[in-house]
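Retro notes
What went well: the complex prediction finally ran end to end.
Inputs used:
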Amino acid sequence: MKRLLLYLSVLLGGAAVLFGAETNDQTKAHSDVLDLAGAFQNDGFKLRDGTWYGQVSKDHPQAMQVNLYSGNGYWFSAANADGSTGLAVSVFDDHGNPVEVQSYQKDNKAAAGFSPDASGLYYVEVSSSAPAATIFCLIYSYK
Amino acid sequence: MPPPWKWLLPSIIAILLVESSGAQQAREGTSATPAPSPLTEAQLNAAIALDSLTVPTPGEFFKAIDKTGKPNWVSQFRPPTPISGVNRAQMALNLGTLIADGYIAVEAQDGQQVKNIGRDVLALAKKLSVSDSVLARGKSITQFAEDGSWDQLNEELEATQNEVKKALEENRDNDLITLVSIGGWIRGTQVVTGLLVESYNPETAKLLRQPALVGYLRGKLDQLPNKLRQDKLVVKVNADLQNIANLVSFPADHVPTANEVKTLNQASAKLTKEISTGE
């Protein structure tokens, strides 16, 4: 019976990955980050309909490429699933140099606000000071 | 009667104190933190790219343009796109251009045009066997267009595009997702350069710099299965994108001239036409 349950959970997990369904950890991180991004939406920022789920721990940050437009303002918001503090969001230019951002950090959430001077490629990095690996969800909004 | 400052001052203080909870929450905990170390070459190479976040939406592109003046969006409408083809690659590319048309209609605040385009998007989605999942979106688009809810329409269009891509993924048609993104970006570029040809503005011209984005899209084309990659239209799109990549790859401090913008407009208009006609 236990073996059957194990097979079923593996099958369901596989199906979740295959069809893009969220795991419980992803759902928690997604829900928390939407809370934070809602505050920026109240300030007129529009939320992109896309999410980035990843796993982060101390010394193992994750970076994603984004293509931004000068003149727009952006907020990149992240939250982790395990509730640990120490999450941070940073932005880098196309050469990997850090750009000045407005940072937000509270509880298990973090965000970086940025208005690029030049259109083009940027990197958004999510890092954590917690040693244990945690699932995070990042979304972004613009205005 | 008390002097005006006696009642005016408390009112001003009250107004300053009563901020929206969202704005306040957003500011709480914000600070300028010390800059992190630069990313290493290995970290730059390991950075992931996601279609749903790495490729900007036409709406994001157009939002930046709105800040540089009052664009004549109506001038960028085009005649209805034929949706009778049977080539799936062409249909996916066309779907991308149509969704971009939806954003243009929203910017122009033309409800009827939004509804017409929404109908065409649904018809094309149906031909790609993804209509069930976008049907509900189509109804919302019609409703928002009737109500003149332009902000919601912008969000609904992006959600529709993602819904289509998700459905393509579920139908094991992942390869077509790239083509939807390319169609949207090309049509968006044609529109922005079209506005600039009408009325040149250096601030808007600076927005055309997107070298990495075209590189990303071409990279995805190179990963397509042989059969799709050798499709006559896809070959044409890939070749034209190479030319367009050169036109949008300029240093951050360069402002494209009116002539450079015109060349890009001609290139993107040619490609949009090829996508539309399949020739």
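What we learned: Chain A touches chain B through 58 residues (CB under 8 Å).
What to try next: split runs per interface for comparison.
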